[in-house]
Amino acid sequence: MSQSDAPQGAPASEINYAAYLALNQLLSLQRTLSRPEHPDELLFMVVHQASELWFKVVLHELEALVARMQDKNALGALYTVGRLNALTRIVTAQLSALDTLPPQHFAQFRSFLGTSSGSQSSQFRAIEAASGLREPHFLHAISEHGEPPEIVREWLARPTLQALFDGMVSEAGTTYEELYTGPGPSALVLLAEGLLEYEQSFSLWRFLHVQLVERVIGPGTGGTGGTLGARYLQRTISTRFFPRLWEVRAKFFGAAKKD
Question: What is the pLDDT of residues 187-216, one digit of tens each?
Answer without folding.
Answer: 999 999 999 999 999 999 998 988 998 899
